């Protein structure tokens, strides 16, 4: 094992292949590209909880400064009627995550990530399955593209689809063609199968996890939208 100055740890995997992972406590960016484009429109500084060949887990702390999309006049996206939500001009703005923190889990190559939410006092609220492009890793973090459709998973293991109206509208507006929409639905069915089988990460006890109290809230870097020199999946 070797640790680099940027917090990356090189480990030797089975077969002698070297792979780089971030050490716990490393601060990275969790980002999303705009749909159908290349511009980053969501950037969230997070702290690495675990990173290995099986899982990347990160913590987004309360009060974290983030970048989010808004309409060109500053109106929050969710306040725009659905029929014009994806066709009105947009920009981005800095804001802060004022809710309780979010633990995000993603497995290499998987077309979704799983987020854990808590109410105040660490009362576990729910899991949230965010369907998306498989995460691409680069030196400063991970990038993806959101696929609109999501799944909410309750503590009693019940679940329901979320944002099906947005998923349909994105297709009407040309942000997602039939082939991609079909792959997203297929990914959603695979995620539901994992939920109903109560496989990882749902059965792994992450709802009992707590952040290291020594961790500081990461800062949003000035070059949060920089283009990675190299990416990998």
TrEMBL record:
Q: Which domain of life is it from?
A: Bacteria
Q: Which Gene3D superfamilies match?
A: FomD-like
Q: Which UniProt keywords apply?
A: Hydrolase
- A GO molecular-function annotation: hydrolase activity
The DUF402 domain extends over: 81-199
Q: What is this protein called?
A: DUF402 domain-containing protein
Q: Which organism is it from?
A: Streptomyces griseoflavus Tu4000
